[in-house]
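Data availability (excerpt). All sequences and predicted token strings are deposited with the supplementary files. A representative entry, Putative transcriptional regulator, AsnC family protein, is shown inline so that the format can be inspected without opening the archive.
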Amino acid sequence: MTKLDRTDARMLLAMCDAPRATGVQLAATLGLARNTVQARLARWDQEKVLAPIDRCVAPRDLGYPLKAFITAVVDQHRLDDVIAALATIAQVTQVTGLSGAADLLIGVVATDADDLYRVAGLVLAVPGVERTTMSVAMHEVVAYRTRPLLEERARKP
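Structure token line:
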């Protein structure tokens, strides 16, 4: 696990503001040596600090305006197979392991209500999925973000 320091946080905040900035531009903006910026960018690449670019593309822009979350109770002896099968469903955007009443939280997208019904059926048909409950996302109130954490880290010595 990578521990990001104050300079890393400042660089990431600058990249939030200007995602296509070059290393030279970042160095100038932050008052850092170009080699410092390049070394940190290389380290982030090696340690996979930054998420893949596909996480920045909204499913809505790809024709999937409907978002839902499915909680699933899974046969624990088949958990790895269930996860592998879910990963083959294109409309599954994320799968998170949970503690509590359900085992998995599955984010899905769909083109419309009929498509959502179809996708939910695909999830339920996965061998090892025992039961599911679905909630349709009505409105994203706070989108996934890390900027406040970066700002906090940038302030700490």
